[in-house]
Amino acid sequence: MAMPEVYEGPDVRGGTRRRLSTGSDLAFMAQAVVAGAVFLATSGMRDDHGLGIDYSVFAAIPLMLLVVVLAAYLYRLLFVLPVMALTRSLVSPWWAAPWTAVITAGYTLWAGAVLHLPYGWTALWIAAPGVLPVVAAAYARHRSLGWSAMAARIGAVTGIALLLCAFGAFLQERTGFAAYEPPRLERAGYAGEWVGGGGAHGLRLGENGEAVAENLAQVAPTGLWDTCSGTGTWTFEPGRGSGGLFDRPRDRVMLTIEGCGPMRDWQVAGTAERPELFCVIGDPDDLHPRYAVTLHRV
Q: What is the structure's pLDDT at 192?
């Protein structure tokens, strides 16, 4: 008499034990890559303070990828594996969500007590990157998929997401959709107190054109960071453009301070409710990175 066939779950099918977190590290790395692509694709919606894209960042891509791989492995060990182990103990995959919340709460309480981090944001930063890895691991276990099968699926989804990012960036650049617009203020709107660097730098613009600088950051002739203070004058120069779709000139405050270096061209950034003045320090043709000194209205 033939014995009835006994169903072997996905963890033991084929005589081998499936890894509980199959595909979770791939999902973590994929979401990090897509997040970076989204950040670049939406750069036209943010103010770059005249710096544009620092192309030196591309030289750091190998190091960033290594950091992402290490973070994915660590996240799998400390987060996804405990979630999936506890979920398997209760058989039903629907327990993954509450166990995710429990483990997130545990790490959040530890970070709040030991590192004194805010609970709300800490919980969000712990749980949000774990949603897709846990879903990928649960999907692999439910479908009895190995690492190569999950790599093919996650790679296909990631490729589609990157193509959408590229297409979205192209449309945003061509149409100017939700593009950043610098604020437009009258001359009187710039008179007053401006501070930056956590209060370390100060600038006072008088209504009659007088200017007083206090520890404004600058680059000394030696190439090192320095500060300068003094009195001088300022003038307002409204942005003049051709009126084209992509022509978004900024208003400028032309500053002349005795004893300060060539930092006379301050451009307008921020919003009408919270305007900013910034000055880019550095030569765009130089290999050294450029910096934007930013001041906020008091």
A: 93
